[in-house]
């Protein structure tokens, strides 16, 4: 029997700046017991949201990082044939080799299903998997059960997890997949919201540094032909780098004197482009 939805409501967490609409869709998804699909470019806080929900509701977080070559069964369970072979060869483990169940290890979805407490299950970057994986996974999450073929046993969820699925908006997901989820697109934070985010991470930040860094950051993001635009994480690390440099003067940012570009641009061609553009505008 799967547990009923938790009566707690999600209202945000200590390190997560939340907009109202997003809080609503999280709570509606929990009430309707539907997975919530979050789309948005990298750095919009999709993964952090799952951490914030788990923290806010006091639930453990189980994270499945989807890889392109992944088979659904790996996310459900693994049959550890190697350990069984070793045990049968050396026979000193104390496990009964004839009982295959001793060698079944739960995958991430299996762990969320068998947990004694309700969990938040984050399925991260679902767009990396093929359509079969996506649709079969949603069947399992709909039915809240799966079969372990080797021991002819059905695993049923003890508690229905709160399911958050993220996608980097690179590839379109199938219509049946989209039809079975609630959907929210997380836009990249605007400068005003970014100020709130920075305030959360740096409560004592110097006002000039915060404003000048945010202004310079958005200008750099808008440069043409940048392949990997810096995201919130890069901005936070950039501010950290500038704050730890005793010779740095935040007023210089206004003059186009931009230090530590390597913290913002991780791809060498983006870094080179930023250096050239800044040299032209100074």
User: What do the pLDDT scores average to?
Assistant: 88
Strand content: 5-15%
CATH architecture of the largest domain: 3-Layer(aba) Sandwich
Q: Report the principal-axis shape.
A: elongated
**Regions with pLDDT < 50 over 5+ consecutive residues?**
1-7
From the helix content, strand content and strand pairing, which structural class follows? alpha/beta
What count of structural domains? 2
> What does the radius of gyration come to?
23 Å
Largest sheet: 5 strands, parallel
First-to-last CA distance:
66 Å
In CATH terms, the superfamily of the largest domain is: P-loop containing nucleotide triphosphate hydrolases
CATH fold naming of the largest domain: Rossmann fold
CATH class label of the largest domain = Alpha Beta
Strand line-up of the largest beta sheet: 2-5-8-1-9
Number of strands: 9
Oligomer: single chain
Helix content: 40-55%
């Amino acid at each position: 029997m799967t547990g009923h939805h938790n009566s707690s409501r999600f209202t945000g967490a200590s390190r997560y700046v939340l907009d109202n609409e997003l809080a609503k869709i999280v709570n509606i998804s929990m009430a309707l017991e539907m997975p919530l699909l979050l789309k948005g470019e990298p750095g919009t806080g999709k993964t952090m949201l799952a951490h914030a929900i788990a923290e806010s509701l006091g639930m453990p977080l189980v994270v499945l990082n989807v890889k392109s070559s992944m088979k659904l069964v790996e996310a459900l369970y693994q049959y550890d044939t190697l350990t069984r072979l070793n045990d049968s060869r050396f026979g000193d483990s104390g496990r009964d080799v004839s009982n295959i169940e001793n060698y079944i290890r739960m995958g991430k979805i299996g762990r969320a299903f068998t947990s004694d407490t309700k969990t938040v299950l984050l399925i991260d970057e679902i767009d990396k998997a093929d359509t079969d994986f996506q649709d079969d996974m949603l069947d399992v999450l709909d039915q809240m059960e799966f079969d372990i073929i080797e021991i002819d046993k059905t695993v049923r969820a003890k508690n229905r997890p709160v399911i958050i699925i993220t996608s980097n908006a690179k590839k379109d997901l199938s219509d049946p997949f989209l039809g079975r989820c609630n959907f929210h697109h997380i836009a990249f934070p605007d400068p005003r919201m970014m100020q709130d985010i920075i305030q959360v991470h740096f409560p004592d930040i110097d006002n000039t540094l915060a404003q000048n860094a945010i202004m310079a950051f958005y200008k750099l993001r808008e440069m043409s032909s940048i392949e990997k635009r810096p995201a919130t994480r890069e901005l936070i690390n950039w501010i950290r780098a500038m704050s730890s440099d005793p010779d740095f003067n935040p007023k210089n940012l206004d003059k186009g004197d931009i230090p530590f570009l390597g913290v913002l641009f991780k791809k060498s061609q983006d870094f080179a482009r930023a250096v050239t553009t800044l040299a032209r505008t100074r």
